[in-house]
Amino acid sequence: MSDWLNPERFDVAVNGGDLCVARWGDTGPVVVAIHGITATHMTWPWVARELQGEAQVIAPDLRGRGGSRDLPGPYGMKVHADDCVAILDHLGVDNAVVVGHSMGGFVAAVLALHYPERVADLILMDGGLTLGELPPEMDIDQFIDVALGPAAQRLSMTFESLDAYYDFWRVHPSVQDEGAWNEVFEAYLAYDLMGDAPELHSKTIADAVFADGRDSFTSEDLKRFLTDYQAPVTFIRAPRGILNETPGLYSNDLVKQLTAEHPHLRAVLIDDVNHYTLSTSERGAKLVAEEIRGVLTS
After folding, report:
1. Are 19 and 12 in contact (CB under 8 A)?
2. Which of 57, 71, 188, 191 gives the lowest tally of CB atoms within 10 Å of its CB?
3. 132-159 pLDDT per residue, tens
4. What's the pLDDT tens digit per position in 24-56?
5. CB-based contact 90:117 (threshold 8 Å)
6. What DSSP line would sit under 6-57, residue for residue?
7. Could you tell me the sign of the dihedral formed by the alpha carbons of 42, 145, 143, 249, in that order?
8. String of b and e for 107-138 (b: at least 16 CB within 10 Å)?
9. Which residues of the chain have pLDDT under 70?
């Protein structure tokens, strides 16, 4: 497994500087895998391993995160989508299967809406579709802070060591399931940490997170996505959410409504995972890879 925790990394020139991009595999069709709001490309090692020999998995660190943290704003879904198109241009690839997890799903949706010719197939994972209205008592930033919980809280914290960072995360509700704490999740956390002990901190920039969170709720592109984008869309969801809560981000009723209104939307429920373990557990990644494999061979 160790090779999959250390992918090839290279830079792609984008507006404002260089985007850090990871690559697993060097043959086969390209899968562009886009991570969530506070994450990095280290969301994807399990999925990439499952697709070994079948595809190249290309995963950026979105600007404001990971190795792309120094890229300046503005942020927002269209900016991230433009950065992903720059990756395809850099690789000389006409189109790719585009997979987006969580906020990465919103990026993927906007990419498909503006650049449909660059998207061979679109897979959204627990993101990309409307989440409905905010609770009336909360503004957007308050909602983001509460919804993300410790993932947002850590952005203003420092840690004396990697072990202390692990300890902070060990009590997170999402890693209480059997198999949820594993070498991939440890590598995901280790890659996120930077600085000098005893003041280590996350590579993710809070301003990027909150700017992108606001755009996820206010983007006119996202409001019209399912109406204007008529190519097939696969929507994979977890039954449990960011804090392992039930229901997850997308309730059964909401998904039934969306699939009834938009026949080109196919919904897939992966049982017994949460928002994180959809991609960072071996079982979740295996089933996600099956869905990707299905469009690669169709």
Report:
1. yes
2. 191
3. 777 777 888 999 999 999 999 999 999 9
4. 999 999 999 999 999 999 999 999 999 999 999
5. no
6. S-EEEEEEETTEEEEEEEE-SSSSEEEEE--TT--GGG-HHHHHHTTTT-EE
7. positive
8. bbbbbbbbbeebbbbbbbbbbbbebeeeeeee
9. 1-2
User: How many other CB atoms are found less than 10 A from the CB of residue 2?
Assistant: 7
CATH topology of domain 2-134+205-296: Rossmann fold (3.40.50)
Tell me the Ramachandran region of residue 17: left when phi exceeds 0, alpha when psi lies from -120 to 50, beta otherwise. Answer: left
- The tokens 């009590």 sit on which residue? 171
